Amino acid sequence: MSHWLGGRREVPPVPVDDSPSIALPDGLSEQIQTVESAALEIYRRAGLPTAAGSYVQRGPQASWERLADNLTPTEKWDLLNSAPEGAGWRFVDRASLGRTSEDPDVRRASALLVTCAGLKARLSGELPTSAQDVADALQLGAAASWLAQIITASPLDDHQPLTFMPIADQSAAKEKAAARRKAASVKPASRSPRAKPQR
């Protein structure tokens, strides 16, 4: 909430030393774009907004409304204070729209959008890079594979939950899924009628 109201957060200065800087993997921008596009497709299928920006929900059953981009922090405070007490209004950015969804895939898509937003802030130099950021960046490849699996699966297909998994395990998981589908499609051979004994 404080980030939504206050806009850009102030980051304390980082002491300068001779330690080597932490570098993010090459090609991260393209990977972020791939994951964001797939996560937003899950949002779209769930009926959630996909445009970047801030949103307000004026009650648990209300639709999300996109707020104007030029709202000042003061205007955001005024809007927040105008919410009736106990009415359940929510103010979030796009990445957090699916955070409380009943669909686990939508919740995971929301978490990935938050991760992508954080990594973009590191790439632009707005925030310092940590070892956790590097770990998150390395996991985006696995996340992209699971997002693609969910998007291409039909409603009747079984798919693994959208979770991070070591990249080496992806091929084995796909082979198991293909074997299950093949086994389900095989029809049992018809039996020939039994010949009647001759008298």
Write the layout of secondary structure elements.
Elements (H helix, E strand, L loop, with lengths): L1 H5 L21 H18 L8 E5 L5 E3 L6 H9 L7 E5 L10 H20 L7 H22 L17 H16 L14
Antiparallel strand pairs: 1-2, 1-3
Helix pairs in contact: 2-4, 2-5, 4-5
Short description:
With 199 residues, this protein is mainly α. The protein is built from six helices and three strands, in the order ααββαβααα.
Strand order of the largest sheet: 2-1-3
How many angstroms separate the termini?
A: 90 Å
Radius of gyration: 24 Å
DSSP helical segment count: 6
State the oligomer.
Answer: single chain
| Main sheet specs | 3 strands, antiparallel
Instruction: State the share of residues found in helices, binned by percent.
Output: 40-55%
Q: Please write the string of helix (H) and strand (E) elements.
A: HHEEHEHHH
The tally of beta strands, per DSSP, is 3
| Beta-strand residue fraction | 5-15%
Please mark out the parts with pLDDT under 50 across 5 or more consecutive residues, or reply none: 4-19, 154-170
* Mean of pLDDT: 76
Q: Write down the overall geometry.
A: flat
Secondary structural class: mainly alpha
